[in-house]
Design goal:
The protein has 288 residues and is an alpha/beta fold. Helices cover 36% and strands 19% of the residues.
């Protein structure tokens, strides 16, 4: 596996691969890799001839008081995991390489960035959209794979690719869960033993709401209420939001008559956890 930290070198490698007619897949990460990341890596590898994975903890998507400084980092472990997956290139730039002094340009997907996590983390999705656009321009992938756990992020990236006419296919990979249902996340490392047990309330609430939907309930307020009620039973859970939205636009809905996403964010101890479930009739499919 080749490790590259320089933008010009990364672009030179990708241009050579493209000229040779090889298809490049890309998985952007912030490191501290877990089983969910590795599933994305395997998915991406099956879609192309060459695979690039990036590790870059992006400061522009962290707000004041958030965990940029304390975000878990373990590069040597991550490198070994990626080598074991036969990744071709690990792109690991510095903050100074990605954001040279005097940089003042940003990418913003306006409406999709406003609800859900965007309402509580102003500027977060501007940081995400900016760094992803930069990474696409550097790595030059044909296809990029993102996890569906970060559902709003995935929709933001799909929209920016469409709006900016970027020549990259965006693939969403299903949420990867632990045996007890907790969605895999680097921030799960913040959880203590008791908090880890409590965190299962997220997936439990989604399952309970989904069962209600499958029994025929379509009113948003009833579906949201059952999920909220299940979360509220857990004393360690500080609920930030429980929302039912259109699966593509992320606008609030009153009734499910097209694919919808039930999304939630909960703080448990130091960890801010998110999860979601797409609710759609089988005949409707999923526009997201």
């Amino acid at each position: 596996m080749r490790i590259i930290g320089n933008i010009a070198e990364m672009r030179e490698w990708s241009e050579a691969e493209r000229c040779a007619g090889r298809r490049i897949a890309f998985v952007p990460t912030m490191g501290f890799l877990h089983g969910g990341h590795l599933r994305l890596v395997r998915d991406a590898k099956a879609r192309a001839d060459r695979l690039v994975v990036s590790i870059f903890v992006n400061p522009s998507q962290f707000g004041p008081g958030e965990d940029f400084t304390g975000y878990p980092r373990e590069f040597d472990r991550d490198r070994e995991l990626l080598e074991n997956e036969s990744v071709d290139v690990l792109f690991h730039p510095s903050v100074e390489e990605m954001y040279p002094q005097g940089a003042q340009t940003h990418v913003e997907v306006e409406r999709l960035s406003l609800p859900l996590c965007g309402a509580l983390r102003p500027g977060h999705f501007r940081g995400v959209a900016t760094v992803v656009t930069k990474l696409f321009n550097i790595v030059l992938p044909h296809v990029a794979v993102f996890g569906e756990k970060d559902y709003q992020q995935l929709q933001v990236i799909r929209r920016l690719v469409r709006d900016l006419s970027l020549d990259v296919e965006i693939v969403g990979h299903p949420i990867v869960r632990e045996a007890d249902g907790l969605a895999m996340s680097s921030r799960n490392a913040y959880l203590t033993g008791a908090e880890r047990v409590a965190a299962v309330c997220l997936s439990r609430s989604l399952c309970k709401a989904e069962r209600l939907f499958k029994r025929g309930e379509t009113l948003a307020q009833d579906i949201v209420q059952i999920a909220f009620g299940e979360l509220h039973k857990e004393p360690l859970a500080a609920i930030e939001y429980v929302k039912l939205c259109d699966a593509e636009t992320l606008e609030d809905i009153e009734r499910i008559d097209a694919p919808a996403v039930l999304a939630l964010a909960v703080r448990i101890g130091k960890a801010r956890l998110i999860d979601n479930r797409v609710l759609a009739r089988k005949e409707s499919g999923n526009r997201g």
